[in-house]
Amino acid sequence: MHVIVAYDISDDNRRTKIHSILKSYGQWMQFSLFECNLTETQYAKLRSRLKKKIKPDQDSILFYFLCACCHGKIERIGGEQVRDESIFFV
Length: 90
Prior knowledge:
With about 90 residues, the chain is an alpha+beta fold. It contains three helices and four strands; from the N terminus they run βαββαβα. The protein has a four-stranded antiparallel beta sheet. Helix 1 runs antiparallel to helix 2 (about 40-55). The longest helix is centred in the middle third of the chain and has 14 residues, at about 40-55. The radius of gyration is 14 Å and the shape is globular.
């Protein structure tokens, strides 16, 4: 599944931890936005890890799920190039 993760974390230390966790699951696209291609299991683990790090009364994390059709309609102008995760070396 293709997931866009956006976050608003008030504390610098917590924000750095959230950013670090998300880097291991997806690609950093903008200051508080990641694109992730995840399995159901990976999403569950990511959500659990993030939930443990935030203060719900001060922070927020949003998950936007894109279907295959919608994913193909993303238009990009400038910014970070998307990694091609379909290529791998053995």
